[in-house]
Structure formats: structure tokens, C-alpha cells
Amino acid sequence: MTLENWTQTLGAGPLLGIAAGAIVVLLLLIIQLRMHAFVALILISLLTAFATGIPAGSVVSVLTDGFGSTLAAVALLVGLGAMLGRIVEMSGGAKVLADFLIGLFGEKRAPLALGVASLLFGFPIFFDAGLVVMLPVVFAVGRRLGGGVLLYGLPAAGAFSVMHVFVPPHPGPVAAAEFFDANVGFVLLIGLIVALPTWYLGGYLYGKWAGRKWELPIPSLLGEADPEHEANPP
After folding, report:
1. How high is the pLDDT of residue 58?
2. Which of 56, 104, 148, 205 could hold 215 in an S-S bridge, CB 3.0 to 4.6 Å?
3. What pLDDT, in 10s, does the model give residues 109-143?
4. pTM of the model
5. Which residues lie closer than 8 Å to 60 by C-beta, 6 or more apart?
6. Inter-CA distances, 60 with 49, 65, 76, 140, 188, Å
7. Within 13 Å and on the Cβ side, how many CA atoms surround 143?
8. Which residues 6+ apart lie within 8 Å of 202 measured at CB?
9. HSE of 191 in the Cβ direction (CA atoms, 13 Å)?
10. How far apart are CA 150 and CA 163, in angstroms?
11. Closest CA to 74 of 205, 157, 187
């Protein structure tokens, strides 16, 4: 049977159940079994196609058409964003931006400054790359001003997280905009409206509370906190 002659017989409930199960299995493959995300995505896509009853002879064409149309819409934007993020990373822009904002906000608001720096830096760069670049800055600030890793690290990590999830040019928001035929500029605006309060509550405020409740010291291999500041973190 070809795809042109095939009719979907499953209802909305079973299809949603298959989609939810596919997401759970995908996360298990990536998180628990440490399978490469791209390989896991292809495998789950094939299994989902068979589970929904797509004819076996049409599965590969459906898979390649789906990947091809998505890449055609998002590859250029995501690629240019990754290039811009790499330029900022290699130029040392993260440290310069963080130092400038700490000087602007003051040392007592250093967690806020690091979070804002991460929000700005998180526009073009992916979550994992941005966090790797910002962590030495976070450790250096914590070592200089005193206080634990959580106090400075959670606002930065939360900032990269919300930018990666909600704001183009990151792959998820761009792919969602393409799938729903939405205007990318409008998605960017709505993404910021959602991302900023989410970061402020879940990244900055929670980070300050968690940093004071559970003070995790800066790892010794990166240097100890300055004793005169350790008793009075920002």
C-alpha cells in the first residue's frame, strides 16, 4: 500500500498516546542510555511511524520529507546563530559582558548581572555551549565575591535554559514556528515575554534562595572563595 492510498484509522486519543510514549522513550534513550540525540531521534521517528500504521514502504520517504522540510526552514538561521555564538565565545565576549554588567549593577547584585549577561549571551548560542563558556566566569565571580556555586550558577543556567527553549534562533522555537507557519519575529517577541519572567522567578529568585540555603563551595581546583567575603555573600 502506498501513502496516497492509505487512510489513518486511529483516533486523536491513541495518536496523542503514541506521541507521548515516543517522547518518554526518546528521553530515556538520551538520558539513561546515553544514546546520541540524532540517532535516538531517527530511531524514535521510525518506531512512531510504524506505531501509527504508516505503510512500511512509505516510512523512509515520510521521514526524509519531514527532515528535509524542517532543515530547509531552520538550518540557515540556526547555523548563523551558532557561528555568531562561536565568535562571541572565542573572542572572550562573555567575560567582558559579565564584568561590565557587574560593574553596572554592583557587586551585591552580581547574580543578577550574571543572569542578564547569560540572557544576552544566550540569544545566539546553544544551552550547553553557553554554559560551558560562562561557568569559568561564574566560578571566578564566586571566588572573588564569596558565596556558593548555586548563588551565581543557577541564574546563569536558568537564563541559558529559557533562551534555548523559548527564543529563536534556537532550533526548537524555529522548528515550532515553521511547523505552525508562524512569524519568527512574533515567536521571538512572545518567547521573550514568556522567557524573562520565567527566568526571573525560576532562575534568579530561586537561585538566590537556593544559594543561601545550600552553599556549595567553589571547587578547590578552581580556587577557593575569598575568606573576607565568604561570610557575607551578595
Report:
1. 75
2. 148
3. 999 999 998 998 888 777 877 777 788 788 888 88
4. 0.61
5. none
6. 9, 8, 24, 50, 33
7. 13
8. 158, 162
9. 25
10. 19
11. 187
